[in-house]
Amino acid sequence: MSIVTIKDKTFRTSIPEKEIKERIQVVADRINHDMADKNPLFLAVLNGAFVFAADLMRMITIPCEISFVKLASYQGVTSTGKVTEVMGINEDLTNRTIVIIEDIVDTGLTMKRMIETLGTRHPASVHICALLVKPEKLQVDLDIEYAAMEIPNDFIVGYGLDYDQQGRNLPDIYTLVSDEEKLNSMKNIVIFGAPGSGKGTQSDLMIKKYGLGHISTGDVLRSEIKKGTELGKTAASYIDKGQLIPDALMVDILASVYDSFGTDHPGVIFDGFPRTIPQAEALKKMLEERGHKIAAMIELDVPEEELMTRLIKRGQESGRSDDNAETIKKRLDVYHNQTSPLIEWYEKEGIRHHINGLGALDRIFGDIQRVVDGI
């Protein structure tokens, strides 16, 4: 499934192009059989049916003609209920077999008006060929002989259908995502583990795979320290001693950075926060105030001996002052005494997922993918 944003709306894939064309082929085969000797005149309704009409006509193998008519009944995502003929029909329809090609039939008002208009031209018969039909939305009695698919009463775009003239060029059909669905699909994740457990590396892989935002408290704080701000100086005094940053300070920073991602983001990875139960409670409250939540806590479990080895090596390679044996030991003590109780807290929340963080990188990320895909 893919997500697209058109103007102020978010849409998700509901019918892929391959399935659309398979359904159209079934309809085309029926028309070829039913109208083999009738030389039908196809009337494609613009603008929405132009893609459907193009694909359908390439599948029609009998002698036929095609023309176009344009009617208007949509504004934004709702039908106005008022049908206006924008471009008329110039062909002589007397005793002709007519097949209307329509992208979608919902209320049926547009189609009813068109059939009434065609009736004044004395055709032999009029048939409806629709890509999509919304049975529960119909307000009039219509005989839709050739319907490729029936769909729920959702607003859709793509494959010729639009939202305020945008999205017609999308090859698949997309359904409007509700606010509740956005919330349920948002993948806000806490990546959890001791220093050196690989949180940053696995976060990078998740960002690349899922397009998630990333809030690393370590990166934010190091940036402040590098700039020499008051926040940075205060943070440095805590970090150099292997201590945690005050909760109120970190929550304010997180809220500001989180809000910078906007309201329609696919989710954010929280890396390095929370580290205590009060922080977890504060994070939960901050997200609830925005109508959001943490979807999963992913715990990377790595033995302490391996953590020491990794961090000492990282200090040698990066020159980070806080990656020395004495400070590392303090940081791990803080983790075990203050941070590890979060495992039980998130377990009670029902969103803790344990990952063995020791081993091949691809295997670890594969385990993480299974968690994220299941959210």
Structure write-up:
It is a single chain. By secondary structure, the chain is of the alpha/beta class. It has 13 helices and 15 strands. The strands form 3 sheets. It has a 6-stranded mixed β-sheet with strand order 5-4-3-6-7-8, with helices on both faces. It has a 5-stranded parallel β-sheet with strand order 12-13-11-14-15, with helices on both faces. Strands 1-2-10-9 form a 4-stranded antiparallel β-sheet. Strand 4 and strand 5 (78-87) form a beta hairpin. Helix 1 crosses helix 2 (50-59), helix 6 crosses helix 7 (230-239) and helix 8 (247-259) runs parallel beside helix 9. The longest helix is centred in the N-terminal third of the chain and has 18 residues, at 17-34. The radius of gyration is 30 Å and the shape is elongated. The two termini are 14 Å apart.
Give the secondary structure arrangement, pairings included.
Elements: E1 3-6, E2 9-15, H1 17-34, E3 41-46, H2 50-59, E4 65-75, E5 78-87, E6 97-105, H3 109-119, E7 125-133, E8 146-150, E9 156-157, E10 173-176, H4 179-185, E11 189-192, H5 199-210, E12 213-216, H6 217-227, H7 230-239, H8 247-259, E13 268-271, H9 277-288, E14 296-301, H10 304-318, H11 325-339, H12 341-349, E15 352-356, H13 361-373
Parallel strand pairs: 3-4, 3-6, 6-7, 7-8, 11-13, 11-14, 12-13, 14-15
Antiparallel strand pairs: 1-2, 2-10, 4-5, 9-10
Structural class: alpha/beta
Instruction: Give the strand content.
Output: 15-25%
Alpha-carbon Rg, integer: 30 Å
The separation of the N and C termini measures 14 Å
The helix/strand order is EEHEHEEEHEEEEHEHEHHHEHEHHHEH
Q: Give me the number of helical elements.
A: 13
Give the overall shape.
Answer: elongated
The count of DSSP E runs of length 2 or more, i.e. the number of strands, is 15
For the largest beta-sheet, the strand count, sense and barrel status come to: 6 strands, mixed
The amount of helix comes to 40-55%
For the largest sheet, list the strands in their spatial order.
Answer: 5-4-3-6-7-8
Pick out the low-confidence regions: none
